[in-house]
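Deviations from the work plan: none for this task. Representative record:
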Amino acid sequence: MPKETFEENGWRRMIYAHKVRMISVDIFGAFDCPDAGQMKPNRPRSITPVQSLSLLNSPFLNRQSTFFAERIRREAGEDKDEQINRAFTIAFARQASPAERNRLVALAEDHGLEQVCRVLFNSSEFAFLQ
Amino acid sequence: MKHFKKLGRPLLDRRRFLSGAVQGLAGIALTTLIAEERARAASPKINPGNPYAPRQPHFEPKAKNVIVVFCSGALSHVDTFDFKPELIHQHGKPLPGSERLVSFQGPNGNLTQPLWKFRPRGQNGKMISDLVPHIGEMADEISFIHSLTNTSNTHGPAENLMNTGFTFDGFPSMGAWVNFALGSENQNLPAFVAIEDPRGNPQSGPNNWANGFLPASFQGTPFSSSKPIRFLDRPNTLSSDTDHATREVLRFLDEQNASRYPGDEELAARISSYELAGRMQLSVPEAVDLDSEPEHIRKLYGANSSNEVKAAFANNCILARRLVERGVRFVQLFNGAYASGGRLNWDGHSQLKEQYDIHGEILDQPVAGLLKDLKQRGLLQDTLVVFATEFGRMPMFQMGTYGRDHNPYGFTCWLAGAGVKPGVSYGRTDEFGFKAIEDIATPHDFHATILHLLGLDHERLTYYHNGIERRLTNVHGHVIREILS
């Protein structure tokens, strides 16, 4: 069965995992993760609205955003500029441009740091290696 | 040559020269053949940035959309659409020539007459049983295929064959192939929707609407009138203002990023996929909202029934029509769930009469209502309605039970609507409905015919995977021209 809850007792590093054939994993399934029904030497790359919906709205992604926000507060303190710098360093390995920093600081102030993290997890720069 | 021989073997002798030359030439010939074969294939090139763009079929299509009603669990043909008077005459006697037949669940008992009375229906007097009287009213619209066969007598693999062309898991479903071939007329809704039965999913589950090795864009999106698309709505802890602000910033970041890589289609596609997701958040609830349907339409489908499962399936049938109206290319409409001893689907091994009385009530009026509604709106001209199941059931009762075992040797499916010759019956089973004996049809023939109606040549619609130009019909299939209008 696909995982429905993401409690602490299920957190461990994965070296190998059970893969149940033809059970598509919620988030990965939309991202061309092979269903293990047939050999798949090449993985196609699809871009679909169902991916966008699951990355925006799934409990998993939103919970990870909360964790990411907690980490940033812990490491960067309460200063919003510092928080955005830290978040960009971790997520993109670069500094935010002034324009980016302004938009994200405003988002953090009005709607919370969790929303900044939700944006970063959804961003193309996070999803793709260029 | 002497010094070459010091290496242990001659580098080039006459035999090696000849064999090498022949292999080389054969290789060149083979390469040419493969190149010709691939040039003959007429599969679409997919722009990952716009995978659902409408694409041209191979030739002028008769049908634009398809609705597949799939009866999971194996609907008994001898109790519904395939009338066998000989079963009544020889009721209680063994099946001649197969007296000790052992089938899927074990030994069979004696021939058993249909459990519902057959009556002539429509202008052409097609014999159809009282289990499906409403569908019977539409007999003149329907083209029956009485000679389908399946290579598997087991629900999961047999469903796979009917819906993907292969008994194994992992091959693209018919809807995925069609979505891949033709794209979508509606950019605000998924192009391929799998409507789940209110009682649960069929035995082989999501493999019935899988993309297999085709890109994930082409997989069916499962939802129904009672079960929404997963993750369609924003988390309920967020206000719409917050959600909106967040998505605005996301769009800004993605545009900044895309401007650093001009010409990167995937980045542009990602931005538009978030826009489409936003439009789907509006258009899917609108399509699923059946409150706007007038009372007489709800009654036509039986959506006003006090039987909750029937009402829910009727709502799914209305939803199928609404999706087709909105340009959704391929809709699968499941009737019946997984293997459950016949409790939740058509797998009537032991108490066929009692169970089918329940299931028939759920199936009959809603499917007939769908046909009637499509017809009165003129949608049946562009829409192909496919009625299918994975196999049929035995003309005998199983030894010691009141039900029939699996029968993959002959069973009935039907087509109606766009491009189909109405009111005909194709193929025939023997006098007991045991085996197909005339114009025997395979699931590949069935698929080839459906693709043909959509303007697609099943031999040219291919996808290169694992060294093979794969097809929905594997290396088989002939269009059943006798049932085309």
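Chain B has two domains: 15-44, 65-232+291-483.
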